Amino acid sequence: GAKHASTPADNYHLARRRTLQVVVSSLLTEAGFESAEKAAVETLTEMLQSYISEIGRSAKSYCEHTARTQPTLSDIVVTLVEMGFNVETLPAYAKRSQRMVITAPPVTNQPVTPKALTAGQNKPHPSHIPGHFPEFPDPHTYIKTPTYREPVSDYQVLREKAASQRRDVERALTRFMAKTGETQSLFKDDVSTFPLIAARPFTVPYLTALLPSELEMQQMEETDSSEQDDQTDTENLPLHMSTDDSGPEKENASVLQQNTSLSGSRNGEENVIDNPYLRPVKKPKIRRKK
Amino acid sequence: MNRKKGDKGFESPRPYKLTHQVVCINNISFQRKSVVGYVELTIFPTVANLNRIKLNSKQCRIYRVRVNDLEAAFIYNDPTLEVCHNESKQRNLNYFSNAYAAAVSAVDPDAGNGELCIKVPSELWKHVDELKVLKVHINFSLDQPEGGLHFVVPNMEGNMAERGAHVFSCGYQNSTRFWFPCVDSYSELCTWKLEYTVDAAMVAVSNGDLVETVYTHDMRKKTFHYMLTIPTAASNISLAIGPFEILVDPYMHEVTHFCLPQLLPLLKHTTSYLHEVFEFYEEILTCRYPYSCFKTVFIDEAYVEVAAYASMSIFSTNLLHSAMIIDETPLTRRCLAQALAQQFFGCFISRMSWSDEWVLKGISGYIYGLWMKKTFGVNEYRHWIKQELDQIVAYELKTGGVLLHPIFGGGKEKDNPASHLHFSIKHPHTLSWEYYTMFQCKAHLVMRLIENRISMEFMLQVFNKLLSLASTASSQKFQSHMWSQMLVSTSGFLKSISNVSGKDIQPLIKQWVDQSGVVKFYGSFAFNRKRNVLELEIKQDYTSPGTQKYVGPLKVTVQELDGSFNHTLQIEENSLKHDIPCHSKSRRNKKKKIPLMNGEEVDMDLSAMDADSPLLWIRIDPDMSVLRKVEFEQSDFMWQYQLRYERDVVAQEEAILALEKFPTPASRLALTDILEQEQCFYRVRMLACFCLAKIANSMVSTWTGPPAMKSLFTRMFCCKTCPNIVKTNNFMNFQSYFLQKTMPVAMALLRDVHNLCPKEVLMFILDLIKYNDNRKNKFSDNYYRAELIDALANSVTPAVSVNNEVRTLDNLNPDVRLILEEITRFLNMEKLLPSYRHTITVSCLKAIRVLQKNGHVPSDPALFKSYAEYGHFIDIRIAALEAVVDYTKVDRSYEELQWLLTMVQNDPVPYIRHKILDMLTKNPPFTKNMESPLCNEALVDQLWKLMNSGTSHDWRLRCGAVDLYFTLFGLSRPSCLPLPELGLVLNLKEKKAVLNPTIIPESIANNPEPVNSTNNHGQSVGFQNTFSNSQEEEEIDMDTVHDSQAFIYHHLNMLERPSTPGKEQSSGEMSMHPVSAAPLSVFSKESNSSKHSDHHHHHHHEHKKKKKKHKHKHKHKHKHDNKEKEKDPFAFSNSPASARSIRSPSLSD
């Protein structure tokens, strides 16, 4: 205890320990010692404290083992038996003549656990729950306050809602796009009522026209997963991905690989496809051409 | 030179035979859009004195020609570059068409001609006399080709491969000469070696087997070596180079598919079906696919959707689609099947001459039809046949006939086979595109007629025979002289048919192949109760243009109470009435089932019938075994029975169309019942929707209940619990999908008593749009949404306008406001989430044009013009251009017309250029008999220039320009031009004509004919006609000739006929007459130099004068020429072009 105890809890513990020291000292006196070194007393105190703590811990375990919350006498007895203590000697020892009586340690300020905020009255146990069970927690931990109405499950309303929601989103989105970009109008005098996003030509117009949009792809995946395999193929397309200086051989090999894997997967028994477009490109023969 | 087509087999028009050709393109630059390479032709002379070799070549710059390594002189002359020289002020289409046909003839490889003429070096003459092999080596380059090869180079960052730049060969009929020198004929077969050196990141796809791919020394490029050992015509050679993604067909490893970057998933899905088409054709033809490999290439900016070449086909990339797309799937599959059919007939088997084209198109179209029948079912097939039949009938009646097998050069050419047309049908390159598509359509229909006659089994045997002959021949060496067996001719084909079937189909051929025109039947009947006989009257109209008389058997099917009976009537010269005995004597028995044609027995409610007659319905030619149009009269209840109980979809469709004329509750009920019947063919149901809308409109005052089809739609497609909300989309059942798409479109055509679309219907459609929910659907709903927009557009009626007020937002009709709201939202959403092929944008643009046209929105082409720009998807551009074309017509806008014409000249996409002309022709801003401020001299000049020289790189485009010119101005000199005669005086208001006082007395002096100057237009037309000289009598009548003067001219015309160019053209091939050249060049020089800035009328007057003097001389000259011609078939110094100008006097004046 080199440190100064300051909190009430620490004070409490110190007081208990002092009491234990007194107990140890009196037991020593009882056994005939006249004086003892401080360190010895301390060690014995430690031992005593451990012993008592162990009794408490074990007793708690036994009682919880039998689904109770508070230890009974039998728990203590079993504990002591388990710890190798002869319980039968205990009453005799308690009644020995030369024992010294120690006054109870002064009850100093009991450490107060800060009171949690309580909201409302705790619910009493219903009749079927035994009284020893823990109390209900504070109401605020389980009470709900509904803040919305019952969800509608009517089909018509749902469809109506989905439709108008989509329409609103679309309108807002397109209006936004129209506001932020160039527009065209059907009326010379009014450009805002029916704003049309200006037509912009593409460099490769067929791509947007033919490839399904991301939304549709998603849909397709949801409705039919068999197409999924195909889509991943797009990721490593052979020819157009290659940059200018990537080795042509490597590139060709990837074509080969990809195509064989692709068609091989469909008819597994025939793995080697002899197609002239899959064959590797030959190296030029030196001085062959005139 | 007059080649005989006959039993003797093929005689080449050339004095040599080509055996092998090497094409080597060693450099191709996408930046400069240029190609450098050489060709080497191996030829065997077939005559001893061969000293000139004529080849085809257009656009190519030829650097050097060597024959057997000796430098050879050559001359390049292409008269089709500028058809009419000497900027004459002719401007009449008759003149042009003749000149154009002559120019094409002058380079026609099938007549042994060509643009490139190579002199065989004199050192080799001896060699040639021994008929030894010659190797002609030509170095050439091609810079920014305008036709034949099309470069697509997107304007963006990155190298060419990253940009997806590609190039491909394209064109219509023989167009290979546009990209390398060759004998551009379908009848000159040879083996090929093709080499292309391209960037290492690119793939070159071409005909035949890819033998190897070799890097160049710097490893930056690679060379693709192709060998085509099957003898093939140059016109069937093709090329596509690009950074293609490669897909080996998982079912057939010798088939390879190519597409542009990023489209591989679509390619996989699209081509996954192809092997079934292969199987089908190989099975019915009992013949393997003739080439050792097949390649499909999908490219952007395609010239046509499908182009078939030897062992490869080039498709538009827009045919690619994912599994989510319903509508495109059958269309794309049809394209694939078509391309494959043409591999057998068209590529592998080629034709002897242009007049045999119908056999190839017919057979490929026919086997494609068989594939359709197997794939889509008999209903779809019959529907398609009916559709094709209706189309060809309508076209022939409109234009005067399509001739499948024109025979030229035989005897006196008074009967020019196509005198009713404004173009020559002697060459594929002079044909109007529409004519050519109709030609193909007729060809396959005629094949079907032949099948009807000889049975399908024999038909397939004939095909098999042709193919096996050809495949035997193809494996032979050139020396065996067997290669010509790979060419099909009309006579060979017919002989095969008679050998195999033992049947004589000559009458059929005579009727439908050697002769143009269709049959027009009018039928009506009466039932003679006493005799129990059906008196059928069948009349024919064979005097209108495009018709012909039919004599022969005709099947009539009569459905009586006792069953269905076929009768074969013999249609003869004078018999109109036919008595057909009826079987059902009894009046109807109660509760007796009626047997149908197919053996089914059904219960019918017979209360609607005429109590005295046992006839339920009558059909004339139910099998469509005559190319005909039938107008048949029977009572409404008979049509209703026919619709309900006849099982043939064609009969059902006919009944629906007939019922439009009978707006009664009974018709309504019959149509509604059909609509609801799920076993009924979906196209019939779709057609019933539109008929029901029409009937409802006719019965609007007595109509009871909700608007037509509304409750039906609600029952079929809306929720049970809340009928105003449509179910979430589920398009698994395609039949109901198509019906769901169509019904709103038809409903929107409903009108109430005020001739407005009922509010209820509009709100209904708006609700469909609002509640449309595709989240749970396996398929895309873009076509459905597009049709809902079409429905909105259909609901629009003309705005009520007071005093032509200006359209502003404030006076916008509230219904239109709602519609506009939807269109705006849809169109804007397309920018963020584009739909497949932008179908929704297309529908929106169309709808906006409808709103403009109906006066709700100010008419303004600016929006459409922005969407028509290059860089938008092609469907969008076409829709936008269509709106601009329509605007040009409605608002008579000169500015927009100019804008369109500029695009025709400058747009990078050939198809767009073609399509604009096509749309302008179909929806012309004015026609020849119409007064229009747009019709002025500048426009005439512009269009004339366009067809004369501006479109020489694209046959199709030039013919399109000719079509437009014909639609706008007719055959003769455009009426808006100042006249060479006194009529000019009245044309002052067109502020073009300045009167030259000196000319008036002169003209009167020189003009013996009285000139009635008060009647300028009609007269001028007639006048020009006579001078154009190849006009038929009807044409003149047609062109509103009112006065006697025209009559006189007409007779003059008749007198002149012997020397008409038409005749000369036919009697000899395009040939040149050095003799007549002299006076002529004097003449043209004179006319050219004479006061160019002067008044046109002056010119013409002079022409006329000159001609009068020259006329007789000319006749003599021509006689001379004919003799001269034989002597000097290689009038070398005289170019074909000058030959044409030689002819010009007789033509031009």
Shape designation of chain B: globular
Shape of chain A: elongated
Number-wise, the strands of chain A total 2
Order of strands side by side in the largest beta sheet of chain B? Answer: 5-4-8-2-1-11-14-13
Largest interface pair: A-B, 79 and 97 residues
Region (Disordered) (chain A): 218-290
Subcellular location (chain A): Cytoplasm; Nucleus
Main location (chain A): cytoplasm
GO molecular function, one term (chain A): protein heterodimerization activity
Report on this model:
The complex is a heterodimer of chains A (290) and B (1149). Chain A has 290 residues and is mostly helical. Among the domains of chain A are: 8-95, Histone, subunit A; 155-225, no CATH class. Chain A contains nine helices and two strands; from the N terminus they run αααααββαααα. Chain A starts with 7 loop residues before the first helix and ends in a 24-residue tail after the last helix. In chain B, the strands form eight sheets. An eight-stranded mixed β-sheet of chain B has the order 5-4-8-2-1-11-14-13, with no helix packed on it. A five-stranded mixed β-sheet of chain B has the order 16-17-18-20-19, with helices on one face. Mean pLDDT of chain B is 83; it is low at 1-8, 410-415 and 981-1149. Chain B is globular, with a radius of gyration of 32 Å. Helices cover 42% and strands 16% of the residues of chain B. Chain B has 1149 residues and is α+β, with helices and mostly antiparallel strands. At the A-B interface, α5, β2, α6, α7 and α8 of A face α3, β13, β16, α4 and α20 of B.
